[in-house]
Input
Amino acid sequence: MSMMKNYVVETIRKAQMVQLLANGKRLDERALDQPRELKIETGVIPKANGSARVTLGNTEVIAGVKIATGIPFPDTPDKGILMVNAEILPMSSPYAEAGPPSEDAIELARVTDRGIRESEMVDMGKLSLIPGKTVIAVFVDCNVMNVDGNLFDATSYAVVSALRTAKMKKYVIKDDKVEATDELIPVPVETTPVSVTIARIGDRLVVDPNAEEEASMDMRITITTDDNGNICASQKGEASTITPEQVLQAADVSIKVGKAIRAQIIEATK
Amino acid sequence: MKKLWEGAQLAGSKRKLIDENGIRLDGRKWNELRPIKLQVGVMKNADGSAYIEWGKNKIMAAVYGPKEVHPKHQVLPDRALLRCRYHMAPFSVDERKNPAPSRREIEISKVIREALVPAVVVEDYPRTAIEVWVEVLQSDGGSRVAGITAASLALADAGINMRDLVVGCSCGLIGEQVVSDLDDTEDKEGNGDMPVAIMPNLGQVGLLQVDGVYTRENFQKAFELAIEKGKEIYLMQREALTRRFFGGEAQTTEVEEGAE
Amino acid sequence: MPMIQRRQVIPGDVVAKGNYRFGSYIERHGDEYVALRVGIAEILRDEIKLSPLTGPYLPRTDDEVIGKVVDVNGFGWVVDINSCFDGFLPASFVFGRDFSPATHDLSSKFKVGDIIGTRIESFERSRDPQLSIRGQGYGKIESGEIVKISPTKVPRIIGRRGAMINLINERTGCDIKVGQNGVVVVDGSPEGIVKAVKAIRLVEEETRAPDLISKVEEALGGSAVGGI
Output
């Protein structure tokens, strides 16, 4: 991603990369459609309603869920509120900077949010308490701790894992007033969206690019699929084009790779 | 900010933070610390890093540098510019916190920087920037002193020249009783909080903030207790650095000159 | 033989008291000598030294470093030398005194991303270090695997009078270039490179091992490859 614009891949390293890719191989010995090792740890922030630390290779993201009551948006009076936010911490890379969220951090948050929202992962209707007046608001904040490429997928897996394990207070309505009980219930999760990011280097498509692959790519595409293998969100990035054939090829890869990752997320968040 | 009468009322009427045997809500005596866990060298990209768990605090500190200064007009011709940011994750507190830096975080960033700079040999790195990032992942009482304690380890891990480590501890008042290392509840419902950071070998104080009303006697008692407890935590800092670089106890050996 | 006392120290430790000559990473406070880094302090009869175990590379004149070109402008190349200061290689050092930005194409010589072996021509604290490629063995490195190590561990990779680097070279047939800035380029057969990189990583991890060279020898196996 362009936040790594300061990161220059060494000519001899890039030549090696391109030569290997021509033979279907990568510098870190992965297959073209093989993501890096994914580790998921949940419940890392006990003060949050739900949390997860995800590492995808050396990329590390911590997501935390906070749940409160709020006022619904006027156009969706009978639906709860879901907000996904992400910050690329200045400690995450020598190229990240402190200050207001960068263009990249905002794109990251919005693409992640879109995958969760459009897949209807959380049943927003069930988050409504008194239509038009009080609903449950779910905030998911992500801290990118260490950057080594593909923040999109690592962040998405962290959000999904945190939401799948989040517990919220059960609310009851007495005399038109919302009251919190001591009972804890899970967030109403309906499906497990999985984002898969594919980068193009030369004419090859590779899954889950690391930092040096991102610095060598000219195009990337992120595709999110749901439990049924339906495509529910996508974002093409970088200042280059993609052919229609490659879009369809990427869709097939993301459905296939997404299935294996979904099984792993479900296992880790039981 | 708590006022004395408010605190006295809370301590009396609401709930007792300390019982007649001098035992606090979490079972500690007046001069005991919460459990502390320190780990050095935990982040991949950073030049130096340290992670601290102190009570319910979970804090990551990372250091980059020395590196070039941007924007250029901030360059100091004779020493390094130390940048410091203390930041709380939105999910680190009970009510979600807005991710934009608050006035509190900006002030804490400044006092952390001013506690660390005297330990760093900034003259050795003219025209450069050294960046210290402190991220509170979960917050409890005393997060600024925990942040300083971790940040100084991250600086040592990065191999920045330092004339001493910096270690912090906060002491305070419950009613008229001086206590060490206030947790979140004691900080909010107690009668005073005094975060202190020291350079333990040089015997200097780099951070001192006080709120609450102290008699002259209690002021001295709380201040000296903070220093004493800081020295205990310093031993844990030593242990964490030694574990990272020497894999165990630090050693002194004698060999013949010329032998290898 | 006089005895040397060797101590593991962290910043703030008093290494010794009294009257000594002392080198880098040590500061004198009254009659106390204070360590500024995590490292091994050696206390000799009248001298104290500290070898740090971690820290950034700070340029020194005449150091041989391996850098990466990160920018080209009209007058030369900006080179990342793994330090807080970028190196600058002036075009006149490469094209000669008749260099003119109008007639010479800098990118034809070195492009962004190229790896070059270079020497620090001069460095004062008030300006960025100036680089030179005059002399034998400097210039563009065309192939090989890049390995980054802590600059504080460079002396261990080289070994006593080059013993370590010679050993790795003999046993793997690889050409190994070591920059004082902690950048190493290993070139040779694919199998040789894998072995050599493993050996370098071993030296880096086991810096404190007492008989490091035998350990590396063992790890590299008995026979030399491709060394004929």
